[in-house]
TrEMBL record, chain B:
Keywords: Membrane, Transmembrane, Transmembrane helix. The keyword Membrane applies. InterPro entries: HAAS_TM (IPR012963). The chain crosses the membrane at residues 80-100, 112-133, 145-165, 177-194, 201-220, 226-245. The keyword Manganese does not apply. It holds the Pfam family HAAS_TM. Residues 94-207 form the HAAS transmembrane region domain. Gene3D superfamilies: c-terminal domain of poly(a) binding protein (1.10.1900.10). This is HAAS transmembrane region domain-containing protein. It comes from Virgibacillus salarius.
């Protein structure tokens, strides 16, 4: 697994987590990710990910009119998406714990 | 509301157009293309309003980004195939109609196969060229060279076909009166169907402008040179006027 693939997997999980609570559209998602500290990625990266997640039925989308111009596409989580988020959280906890153990033991 | 459209920078507009062309020439579904282009347009508008440049969004390589999007979309060659069939038969219809009005309809087998394959080869090359131009930041000169070569391609292939047709003998299909009438009806029906499908009468109007002046001039007794000169001038001036009116109308419409 290359670093970009690993990064994509992590971004997938974060996107699912953000979408979980509220309906959001693309630009909002990118902004939130940046607010959380993801600065190094280009914002457009989220769209291919969203497209795949939609194909895999993890998210659904609806178009809504906005006061400020063209229609926005809002995403929300499906049931399948919620369980995928659970899996991601478990995987992440394990990974995080392992990495932390390695770092604290080996870099004393 | 309109201000939002104007706000989008030239570079972003260009990117969206390029993306549309790139995906289309990669054989992607038209509705899906509109979907992602619209979504990115919304993103770019809001990002530019917050003072971000398109480089923050697309990254260093537009081509790589277009590929990422393209990879997530199903390739829909059926739609592509429809376009090819329509363009090939549409242009063939043009040739047949023209010949019908000239009063001579006979094609050798080689000509028929040749016409169809030249049109197919040309369309595939056009799609590939558009895809290439959309994905690479080329200078205007390089773009013109590509279009120039592209324009020369069918002409040189046709000339090649004409010579080949002289050298190689293949069975000739010659249409008598009845055959011509049937062909005319079928071809006209085809052209009408295509026009209806494309929701534009442009093709039929241009066809009429190409054919009718010549036919009408036949009934006047003028020298061949004058005939040729007048015929082509009326055709091309007519088409030019039509195009100007058409673009004014469609601009007023939007």
């Amino acid at each position: 697994m290359s670093t970009t693939q690993m990064m994509k997997g992590i971004l997938d999980g974060c996107l699912l987590a953000i979408i979980k609570d509220t309906e959001v559209y693309g630009y909002e998602l990118a902004e939130k990710l940046e607010d959380y500290g993801f600065h190094s990625f280009s914002e457009g990266t989220i769209y291919p990910l969203l497209m795949r997640m939609q194909k895999e039925e993890l998210v659904t989308s609806t178009l809504k009119k906005s006061t400020a111009g063209p229609r926005r596409k809002y995403y929300s989580l499906t049931e399948k998406g919620e369980s995928e988020l659970q899996h991601f959280m478990e995987r992440w906890q394990t990974l995080q714990a392992s990495v932390n153990r390695v770092l604290s033991d080996e870099t004393k | 509301m309109n201000t939002n459209r104007i706000v989008l920078s030239k570079k972003s507009k260009r990117f969206l157009e390029d993306l549309r062309i790139y995906l289309f020439s990669s054989g992607k579904n038209a509705d899906e293309i509109e979907d992602i282009v619209e979504e990115l347009q919304v993103h770019l508008i809001e990002a530019e309003r917050d003072g971000k440049s398109i480089d923050n969004i697309v990254g260093q390589s537009p081509k790589a980004y277009m590929d990422q999007i393209s990879d997530e979309m199903l390739t829909d060659y059926q739609e592509w195939f429809t376009y090819i069939v329509i363009i090939v038969f549409g242009s063939f219809g043009f040739i047949i109609m023209n010949d019908l009005f000239q009063g001579s309809v006979s094609y050798s087998l080689l000509e028929i196969i040749g016409y169809l394959s030249i049109a197919t080869v040309f369309i595939i090359c056009v799609f590939q060229a558009f895809k290439y131009i959309a994905a690479h930041n080329l200078s205007k000169i390089v773009e013109y060279v590509i279009f120039y070569v592209l324009g020369l391609l069918p002409i040189s292939l046709y000339i090649g076909l004409i010579f080949l047709n002289e050298v190689i003998e293949t069975p000739v299909i010659h249409l008598e009166m009845l055959g011509m009438i049937i062909t005319a009806i079928l071809t006209l029906a085809l052209l009408l169907a295509i026009s209806y499908w494309a929701k534009t009468w442009a093709m039929l109007i241009i066809l009429a402008l190409l054919i009718l002046p010549d036919t009408v001039l036949h009934s006047f007794h003028i020298s061949e040179t004058l005939h040729l000169l007048l015929g082509t001038s009326i055709s091309f001036v007519g088409i030019a006027i039509y195009l100007v009116i058409h673009s004014k109308l469609s601009r007023a419409h939007s």
